[in-house]
## 1
Amino acid sequence: MKTPDCTIIGGGIAGLSTAIALQQKGFSVALFESAPEIRAVGAGISLAPNAVKALRALGLEAEVTAKGKVLESMDILSQDGASINIVDTQLLTEKYHAPHLAIHRADLHQILLSKVLGDVVRTGKRAVSAQQNTDGVEVTFHDGSTHQARALIVADGIHSPIRKQTVPGSEPRYAGYTCWRAVINYPGDLSGAATETWGPKGRFGIVPLPNHQVYWFACINAPANDSRCKNFTVDDLFVQFRDYHEPVSDILKHTRNEDLLWNDIADLKPIPQYAFGRLVFIGDAGHATTPNLGQGACQALEDALVLSSVLEKNRDVADGFRIFDVLRKKRTHYVVNRSWMLGKVAQVEQPLAAGLRNMLLRLAPTGAAEKQMAYLYDVVF
Ligand SMILES: Cc1cc2nc3c(=O)[nH]c(=O)nc-3n(C[C@H](O)[C@H](O)[C@H](O)COP(=O)(O)OP(=O)(O)OC[C@H]3O[C@@H](n4cnc5c(N)ncnc54)[C@H](O)[C@@H]3O)c2cc1C
């Protein structure tokens, strides 16, 4: 194979969108993915206006919108269904010139994969280490094979072995809560509102998708890798959330055990550097965040555009990566830190403290939240 301009490790949202962005700027790419095929987990994902603008810049907004659902509001509710905070996403759409979308991850992945040109994706190749040399970076795979890269873009997610090798101690950090997710067929009418219910038994999120599908998630506090949680069934979740307002129970009634996806929630404590000579970390490999702000994939899409743009302007790869590092660090660290804090607030389970939190949030001035949204969504690519 001809040595390509850029080698990407990982075919998730970060890796695929970066491949597309680089090809659009005239770079050749090679992408190595560990899984036997590129495929997303069976869950939904929300894409905030900054992500939709990134997709617009990639020429993908119309296709993603056609497969997704435009969210009309995002409401935080208490256990009895009373409103704690409502974000009118239609107003945000006007203000930040892009909607808030929800989409099945499989659809987003399919669209991204279909836009990577040529036979450049190699599956079944798990990168285990990388070594810089005078020609660039040599990657070693689990099967003992190697690949010489002129520039190496590492997008292999939170458990990235190359990041662990390059940044010692950069292990995932458990957030203290665990999460079940599912996409189900649901006949009930949810309109376009996404909701997140904060109560003493945990958090329950409901996100409408097109075609009468619903993406839901449930987070409860638990020890890491808890054997009790590992064996949780829909019935256990039903018991856990039985005191919550409808349609929580009804949605669980429409869920089968085989629909459940279970993960402990973890992030990466901000690392001081993303660029190391001709090697750079992007997406979750560099700045994995807890999902509380719904920004992990959004930031991965931003990475793709910023990286392709700096490489177009700086044909010296190391210079381009260094500039990327400067442009992306503050913003992605902000997301990781804010999301971590928000998770701590949202997961309060002591009933008195949870009640006080809800009351304070209802009374809180909207200025801080608006400032945060402006920072996240008011971007131009
Ligand atoms: C419960 C939950 C809900 C979330 N909700 C949202 C949301 O609503 N909105 C949002 O913006 N974000 C959300 N996120 C975050 C989002 O899922 C991630 O930030 C995003 O998927 C990161 O994409 P990535 O490509 O960087 O990493 P990944 O999705 O982890 O992709 C990495 C890819 O690399 C491959 N790989 C792994 N190791 C290797 C290796 N050694 N060699 C080669 N390939 C390898 C993997 O198979 C995978 O294909 C959520 C996360 C969670 C856990």
## 2
Amino acid sequence: MKTPIWFQYPRFEWQNRQAVIIGGGLAGSQMCWHLRQAGWQVTLLERHAGLASEASGNPAGVISPKMTAKASPGEDFYRNSFHYTQTILKKLERQGTKIRYNLCGVLQLTHNERELKRWHELKARHLGEDFIQLLDEKQSSQVAGIELPFKSSYFPEGGWINPADYANALCPEGREETAGAQAGCKIIKQTQIISLQKNGKQWQLVDSAHNLIAQAEVVIIANGKDLHGFAQSAFLPGVPVAGQTTFAEASDYSKHLKTVIGHEGYLTPALHSDCSQQPVHIFGATFERDCSAPQIKAESDRQNYDSLQNYLPEFAHSLGQRSSAHVAVRMTTPDRFPYVGALPHKAFYEENYHDLHQGKKWKKYPQAKYQQGLFVLGGLGSRGVISSAYCAKALCELLENKAASENTQKVLNNCHPARFIIRKLIRKQ
Ligand SMILES: Cc1cc2nc3c(=O)[nH]c(=O)nc-3n(C[C@H](O)[C@H](O)[C@H](O)COP(=O)(O)OP(=O)(O)OC[C@H]3O[C@@H](n4cnc5c(N)ncnc54)[C@H](O)[C@@H]3O)c2cc1C
């Protein structure tokens, strides 16, 4: 696969291997971990008192791939992300970190015609039983531990994770002083960056009181829903979508559930959470376009419950007291791929590739130009729990000028921050 010139990157020459990351959610934490492993000195900036306080603060996220009926770049991306997440979790476990997670399997129900059609097509593809098993109603019920009147796609290696534990395990406090190959990570919390200014080769990061908080040649914007908060990234198309999850106390019946269930939303098996002495199930999440100031809403909990009741009425009726779990905004992109890579120089693209719609195959276009030293890992949408690690790996390899493997190259192309500028030019919009 040849990468078109507008998606190619130059070889980066860094004066030193120091980077600043804006945002301490899963994207920022993964980036911090990957760079640290590669020997970089990293400063992570977060506006809240703790990491994973926004989208990554959901008490349980599902670890599951996203399958399409036929093989597709999206399926490939999420499947690789799914496998890579497991590699990282095993590494973190070996390092002795504490993360609440359980790879108890995920059953995706065929709860509508489209899912049923997909189930038949996936069955015909023989994708390997370790990865996916296409179960009938009886088998689904046996695996789940409760009665399920649906066929399902079963991912035995899937499960759930507490994303805040995950982020904290990736960026533990007190690593600042470590030297050498395990070069340090400095975490600065309760600091909101409001602007990025270029001074020679350095980017200067300034807070709302106009204090210079940090400077570095390499800055990675991993600011979740605030992707448009900096002039340098404001052009990236993105739609913020709020989501709320709900807790309910487990019942004697519901405690039999052994796996995560996916329907319209998701449902975890009973688990221990900070919110309750009793084991609870977490379910949801809603998708709400009105998210200027996301707030916990009783209506959103009702929606989550109604959806559960629609597909699993006996289970839903058995549940104990309900309460709101978490609300936050995920930043989605028009094609559901995240943004991973260097931020393009938009005016250069528009000037130099303006005639792409004419399809001049013979024309020699100039090398792409980027905002030097500025990178983005964002737009992770509703799948960032599984895709953040894989994206961070690809971005780290890019920064390190590592010859990209075919898989990494696909991530860099599919998730290129200039892709919508190029699509517009090709369509002459
Ligand atoms: C309800 C809900 C359920 C979800 N369920 C799943 C799931 O089951 N499986 C799955 O794979 N994914 C799931 N997701 C998606 C996943 O949680 C997100 O994609 C992921 O957490 C995004 O991580 P992030 O780091 O990009 O964003 P965030 O976690 O929002 O992190 C961005 C951070 O940047 C900080 N920040 C922003 N601007 C600044 C600034 N100027 N200065 C300093 N700090 C700043 C913020 O405070 C924040 O901490 C869910 C999301 C939600 C909301």
## 3
Amino acid sequence: MKIINNVIDYSFLSSFDIKELIEALVIPIRTDSIYFVCFVCGESNVSKVYTNSLIKSYELSKEEILFFLSDIKNRVKLFELVLKSKESENINHTFIEEFLDILIKKSIDLRASDIHIESLEQSMVIRFRIDGTLKVFYVFGKEFFSGLSSFIKLLSKLDITQIRLPQDGRFTKKKEKKNYEFRVSIMPTINGESIVIRVLDNVNIKKNIEDLGFSNHIYKNLKNITTLKDGLVLVSGPTGSGKSTTLYSLIKEFDFETKKIITIEDPVEYKISQVQQIHVNDNIGLGFKTVLKNILRQDPDIILIGEIRDKYSLDIALEASLTGHLVLASIHANNSIETLSRLIDLKADSYLLSTTLKYIISQRLVLSICKYCNKNACEKCNFTGFFGRSSLCEILEIDNIVSSMIFEKKQKYEINKYLENTNFMSMLADGKDKVKRGFTTIDEVYKVVSRNEI
Ligand SMILES: [Zn+2]
């Protein structure tokens, strides 16, 4: 699929009726005096669109053909802009801006979290990350890359002459009267540069608890957490498992007017008004430790610690939660029981832990079956059969028995044995339940639940 854009003669392709191409399942590549060259699949009917010459065809899957043709208007337009830019003598920003605008509009429409623009040895590849998965959308010649890179730097107020060192910036774009924010990272590579544009507004952070696709029993427990006055609540899972989204959605449930809420983050990516967010910055001496050391003097009710990363941050979290504060934090661990082991590895005081720990949430994100086509592949899901993600989750409520087991430093298997006789539902069980209800596939569930990082 990756080579498709590169080999296609778009002016030839544009001479066809797109609807007919979709019906015939054919992507014309080019023609010469002898051959009509095209991409086809098992169900294609080439004679429906072309009969003038011999046919030379290359095989693609039906989904790939439909994915390509469904977006043909943008592909042709982008190709024309690349050509026009090449033809004009000086770097022409009008064409480049239009090119970038198409990518940005597309990223918003697709709910993409990131746009990746990479210069490779011969080509420039544009990919979008949608629901956690990268997909190649466009491939063009490499000549256009430097102009596009300079324009993005200009837009993000970066040094356009700098191509040897990494740069970070931001820009805002208006679409349908709404301002969208983008964070840009540019990294020099052996073939040029890799540009990643994060579409900040497309990230799930703005969602409320009810929109995150939790099962009912999880949702009820999460609601209970929002009534806590003090204690420690931990969210665990590998990177990209939706921990921050869950933490933010919990924070948003509290009354901002009567509670002092402070977050310590590295970095702050999403602003919540009326919450005191602290952006940790080691370069200026505002390190994690410095902030934690002073945090209680800020008279907080609720503290969100971006990540419990060492004994120091854990001790502060325990101390704060023991002295009448509610502390929410994320921690790297594979599931709720392993979170307990991780806390013990960090040499947590078992008395403090058993007294303060209230809940451990552990989660993964699982792809949802496309609600528009029910896994049959359609334009909405880019012919993948999946659209959006929901959370697989387990919540370990620290009841009196678990609490005393923590105090007595019981082994994992002993806690597991106790849980078997309670209504604790593991992540895998939550996943199987979602499969039964038609929300996702069993393959997806096994894939994400077995995704262990530690
Ligand atoms: Zn679909």
